[in-house]
Amino acid sequence: MEPISPFQSPGESTGTLIPHLFRREFTRIVAVLSRLFGIEHIGIAEDIAGETFLSALEIWPYRGIPANPTAWLYAIAKNKARNYLHRDQIFKSKVAPALKRAGASEAGELAAAAEPEIDLSEANISDSQLRMLFAVCHPSLPAEGQICLALRILCGFGIEEIATAFLTNKETINKRLFRAREKLRTERAELEFPQGTELTRRLEPVLLTLYLLYNEGYYSESQDTVLREDLCAEAMRLTELLLGDRSTQVPAVDALFSLMCFHASRFPARKGENGEMILYGDQDESRWDRQLIARGAFHLHRASQGNVLTKYHLEASIAYRHTMKPDTIEKWENILQLYNHLLAMVYSPVAALNRTFALSRVRGKPEAIAAAEKLELTDNPYYYTLLGALYTGINADKAMENYKRALALARTPADKGAIQRAIDNFF
Fold it and tell me: Region 349-375: what's the mean pLDDT?
């Protein structure tokens, strides 16, 4: 178990410590108990983990915070799990008779056999979370169900937090989680680590879920922030779980992690003092995190070993070029060619839209306008924002017309603020 500080700083309180521990330890307890009980009983594992933290909320304010809070939580979780195993009727009626038939005839032997070790060691936690990652990304689940389960079970997000991420209500999220859990139960999904060709097949939806989870944070449409760094951080943490296991240290995982690093390196420069979004061309390069850029470059180099090429490789290479300044024609020519390869591999309207900006830097605005208008993304505010920028300096009326359309379609205060600033620059 990882050593934890005694938490005896004067400012420490249960009000700040418990939420911090919940985010980390809830997911670890759930993963281990789900592995013990079977994924069909994942709801029970969540209940036990939740009751563990409820005990902390009830006891710590009066008796004080334990010298080792994590060890305390693990001890309580183990006790609650053992109590569940003793009283659960399914366990008594199905498991105990099987153990008797196996030869555990005496009461002492049966009790010992009926109490499997609840292993909350660091190694078992990591292995259990990795198995859980593959389970919640089961191919039978829709992408939104996979992300909801990942956020709840592997990231420790509350229902309200998940609802905020998806711009929906708690009732909808509860229904998605219920359907996803039921699907795992009916599909008889198991917390087993896939092997061989099955691992390759199952890794694809896992990487897609982590990619989408990261994008939920990077392109946040929350009403109060342009960037959900907590979502991005959890996506990176889970991707690192894959990198930490030799069987999943494959080029696609390295490529995805490098993509995340490059984007995360510009987080400090992407938000203004008042939370407003700062576009790439206006970002302060000195605020970019050079350590993250170097880390991304390391993993991109490692991803390039061999002959595997995925969309994550191409997107990471594009993101890497964006960490280079000053701007040059060569830089944007490289980005344009990478977008061409990406669109040939996997077409995406967003990638096609981003390609037109690179096209404008290489071949000029008129050619980029023609390419952009062919996309006809008439329900996308970024489409009109880009057209507004491309028409600026060429046709002021059309630039203003497109900016106004973008403003009408914008969904968040941050987007509206960025578009309004562009309109104000005309006056």
Answer: 95
State residue 89's pLDDT score.
Answer: 59
DSSP bridge partners of 271: 277
- Of 259, 253, 264, whose CA–CA distance to 218 is shortest? 264
Q: Is there a contact between 406 and 384 (Cβ–Cβ < 8 Å)?
A: yes
Mean pLDDT of the chain: 86
Place of tokens 């106004």: 404
- Looking at the predicted structure, is the pLDDT value of residue 53 above 50? yes
Residue 90 has pLDDT above 60, yes or no: no
Beta bridge partners of 277: 271
Q: Concatenated DSSP letters for 311-367?
A: HHHHHHHHHHHHT--S--HHHHHHHHHHHHHHHHHS--HHHHHHHHHHHHHHH-HHH
Residues with Cβ within 8 Å of residue 378, at least 6 apart in sequence: none
Distance CA 285, CA 270 (A): 10
CB 230 within 8 A of CB 185: no
- State how far the Cα of 272 lies from the Cα of 278, in Å rounded to an integer: 6
pTM of the model: 0.84
Cβ contact 235:213 at 8 Å:
yes
Report the C-alpha gap between 73 and 61 in whole angstroms.
Answer: 15
Position 6 confidence tier, pLDDT thresholds 50, 70, 90: very low
Q: Which residues contact 235 (CB under 8 A, 6 or more apart)?
A: 210, 211, 213, 214, 217, 260
Q: What angle do CA 165, 168, 172 make, to 5 degrees?
A: 115
Say what the pLDDT of residue 190 is: 82
Contact 287, 268 (CB under 8 A): yes
Q: Is 9 left (phi over 0), alpha (psi -120 to 50) or beta?
A: beta
User: Does the pLDDT of residue 74 top 50, yes or no?
Assistant: yes
